[in-house]
Design a protein that fits this description.
Number of helices: 8
Strand order of the largest sheet: 2-1-3-4-5
Radius of gyration: 18 Å
Order of helices and strands: EHEHEHEHEHHHH
Helix content: 40-55%
CATH architecture of the largest domain: 3-Layer(aba) Sandwich
CATH superfamily of the largest domain: Response regulator
């Protein structure tokens, strides 16, 4: 039984495979991306409960990807990893929104992953559908509407007519709403 979906973004294959093997041994589902571009594609197509990302990677580095995702309202917890991080890197990553920063090689990864994912469950239970009530109303409404439409699209095989009927909207209004929310209609 799968107990959580984790994305590891690391160009060091041996490191990524070691983490993957450790986590899969206890039934986490783990996907590995070698760089930021591959990670972005995976994030678009899959839902993850945790992202573990290396700081130094070819192409776009982990810090700029973290910043990009956080600026876009990315809600999945991100743990940064590095074998050469300076204190200022750790502070910067946490300020940008990372939930933790690990020094490689990683030790006792299981306890950390369990802790982060259990905190996520508690955090989600304290909110209605993941909505942070400290956000401005429009941002909270967008989170709710995004979850609402994604749920109904998935449940109804992306049948726009059916979802529009359920939502009490005209199809053209629904299309515009999905585009505004950045939801791919597939």
């Amino acid at each position: 039984m799968n107990i959580g979906n984790i994305l590891i973004i690391d160009d060091e294959g041996i490191n990524a495979e070691t983490i993957k093997d450790t986590l899969e041994d206890v039934n986490y589902n783990v996907v590995v991306a070698q760089d930021a571009a591959q990670a972005k594609t995976l994030i678009k197509d899959h839902t993850f409960d945790l992202v573990m990302m290396d700081v130094w990677m070819p192409g776009q580095d982990g810090m700029s990807l973290l910043e990009e995702w956080m600026n876009a309202g990315f809600s999945t917890p991100v743990v940064m990893m590095s074998g050469h991080a300076e204190h200022k890197d750790v502070v910067r990553a946490i300020r940008m929104g990372a939930v933790d920063f690990l020094k490689k090689p990683l030790h006792d990864i299981l306890s950390l992953v369990r802790k982060i994912l259990s905190e996520q469950v508690v955090y989600q239970e304290q909110q209605i559908s993941g909505i942070d009530f400290d956000l401005p109303l429009k941002a909270s409404r967008n989170i709710f509407e995004s979850q609402y439409f994604k749920h109904h699209l998935e449940k109804n095989n992306n049948n726009i007519a059916k979802v529009a009927e359920l939502a009490g909207l005209e199809r053209t209004t629904l299309y515009r709403k999905l585009k505004d929310l950045g939801i791919d209609k597939k």
